Every structure is written in C-alpha cells, then in structure tokens.
Amino acid sequence: MTIIECKNVGKVYRRGVEAICDLSFTIEEGEFVYLLGASGSGKSTLLKTLYRDEAISSGTVMIDERDISKIKVRDLHKLRRDIGIIFQEYHLLPKKTVYENVRFALEILAFPEEEMDARIRQTLTLVELADKADCYPEELSGGQQQRVAIARALINEPRILLADEPTGNLDPRASMEIFRLLMRINRRGTTVLLATHDQHIFQRFHFRSLTMSGGQLVADESKKAVGSLQYDYKKKDFYIV
Predict the structure, then answer these.
(1) Which CATH class is domain 1-82+160-241?
(2) What is the spatial distance between Cα 216 and Cα 83, in angstroms, rounded to a whole number?
(3) DSSP string, 14-37
(4) For residue 147, which of 49, 127, 192, 221 is within the disulfide window of CB 3.0 to 4.6 Å?
(5) DSSP H or E run through 217
C-alpha cells in the first residue's frame, strides 16, 4: 500500500526562490528510505511539506490517500497523529525529566490520563531508556538525548517516521546506535524516511535512496538490506544478520 505519494510537487518562496521543483515519488507502507543530497538540495523543505509545516506551491502530496493540501488547519492534528518527526536538534525541555519530556507530547495530544504511564514506559523501553526515566537532559549523552526525542516522536505510535539529520550532531558510535534503533522501529512496521549526510551509514547499509539536487529528484535507487543490525563487541563494529 502506498503511504506517501508526491506528484509534480513544487515549492517556491518569496522572490521566486525555488526550493522544490516538479518532484514525484511514492513510498510504500513499511519501507525504509534514505533521503540524500547536499545542504540546500531541498531535503528539509520536502520533509516539512510532508507534515504540512510548509504549504506546497504546486502539485499534490498524498499521505495515506489523503490530499494534505486540502486538510483544514484545525484538522492538521489528525494528520500529525500519523507522523512522527525527529530533528537534528533534540528540542528537549531542560527542566523536565526524560519521563516528563515524553509525557508532554501526550499532554499536547490530550491523551487519556489513565493510559499515559503505560504508554510512556513502553516507549522508553523501546528506545532503551527505561532506566533513565528520572534523569534530566543535561545528565544524558547526545545519543541518549536523541533517543528521548525519538521516544517523543513515537509516543503516539505513528505510521510514518520522518527523521531530518538525526545523527548530525553525534559521534560515529552514537550515530550507529540511533540508526540501529531506526531499523528496529522500521521492523515493527513503521515507515521511515531518513534524511542524512552520513555516508558511513547509507553506503554500508543498503536501503532504497531518494537523492535530491537543486530541489529536484535526481536518483531513486532501490536497494534492500535484510535482517537486523547487531553489534560485535569483540570486533567493535556493527553488522546485519
């Protein structure tokens, strides 16, 4: 089933600055897809159009067979329940614990109070932070802070996860841990679209890639990695099994 479809999408800013030009592609439910391209190629703008933080100038964006340009502003929260978003910056609330940061996302969604605790602890277990629930962001490493941000993005069990350079501020080991987590999330059925510059990841672990340049889609390469990502403590390296 097609869960994301872009048809001849264009985005033009003031003074005629063209960020996206005649872009078309589809993503099937459950796919893991890299979004590649240099800075300024249009990757972040594309991601913003998918959750309608940016309105497109032309074309059509369909999310789960819904034309998102026709969704009224007051109903956008319904769209965004199906989409989790991870940024390069963590955007954590410094005076709230890990548990409270994740809970805050549920409070915004007016999630039933009686179901919050179980959902939060389940999600923290998924991102391997159950033992850090009472810690504050300053007490965590960069990789752990990014996992809190991922937990917050996953708390509503979205069908789509959009990740905009989530490993950009991390060292190689932490980057691989985040990538391993994204693979694990994808294996559970979530569609993942990962914008990244990390060549060590996308050249080594092969998934379909969409490459942008100058706001256009210049390549769509289908590759498929199977299995799950594991860590060999003797060799001190990651591998797929």
Answers:
(1) alpha beta
(2) 23
(3) GGG-EEEEEEEEEEETT-EEEEE-
(4) 127
(5) strand 216-221
